[in-house]
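Handout, section B. The chain below has 402 residues.
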Amino acid sequence: MASPSKPQEPLDHLRLALVLGAAVAVSPLAMDAYLPAFPAIAQTLGVPHHLVELSLSIYLAGLAGGHFLGGPLSDRYGRAPVMLGGLTLFGAASLMIAVSATFGQLMGWRLLQAVGAGFCVVSVPAIARDHTRGAEAARLFSLIGLVIFVAPAAAPSLGTLLLWLSGWPAIFVFLAGYAALLIAVLRLTLFTGPRPSRPEREPVRTLLTHYGQVLRSAAAMRLLGVQALVFSVMMVFITHASAIFQRGYGLSEGAFSAIMAGSVAVMALFNLGNRGLLRRWDPDPILRGTVALQAATLLALFLLTLADPPLILFLPVLLLGIGTFGAAMPNTFATYLEHFPHISATAAALMGGLRFTVSGGISGISAWLADGRLWPVAAMMAGCSLGALLLTGARGGAGEPS
């Protein structure tokens, strides 16, 4: 297979990872920075607290829609117009959220904000695939992951500071400013010079037929399932984290924040270890080993919860199971995109859209089943991980060509 064409002055891996990581960080910043402001938003707009929580659900729906639509557009019209257009929409919608006078207005602009974020984020793995392949791509995805981990760790504290300084609208003004700064950075680093010529633009109908090409690949579909289930483990954890630690174990807000930061730190450690392993092995066997470790750990966690464990026993096992996310995700991305070098944005769109759709559904089911109990949460996490393990072992490995 011929190596993909590169820009005339390609960025080194570190600078490329910083730029792309900053682009992906748009989404976790938009999801996590305003979480401390839920009570203030509810009070300002005169709605119950639980309705404000719906703004997170509608964001996930818009993010999935932005992936599904933005991926094919990126393959057809190029990375720059889709990514920069998405950031422009994200920034404008963020400003409109800040001046929303009703909850309905906030929800409408929140949906458009998420679509813009989806346009931006879906282009990132495609750009990484444009520059690299194989183990090199997995190392780049791991490096991007290290940059991304900063956002969910810092966003709640940043939101709390902005809320204290100026009120909840300041959070969305900050997000708009972040988008504007990112547009400038992308123009100065990644999208310099004239837009590359595309000698033969494919017909519009290929926006849909490319999805069919991905769906017909058995190996790709297994990898889609692996990532959706591994990501669902993370979403189930996030959904129930506050209930587990603050209500169940009675921890303070500070202790809870420390545990959440600790989970990000463990994921970062797995990510760093993954980069070292990729110097000796291909992404696919590392992926299978990582998912096997996660499944074994979460099965042990489930058995542990049946005995109502103290925090000192529960927490290390949980953090180990969650930490594997840091190695599983980049290897899944790299192995999956190897199947689609010429429609990588469309392939990434399908992966991202299904990831948010499946994980949102599973986390919602877990909320209904748990009803304040710990063991159903652990059972759901273990079930997702065991399902991912079965998929990685199908026909000798998830990365085997179909």
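Note. Residues 1-9 have pLDDT under 50 and may be disordered. Compare this with the example in section A.
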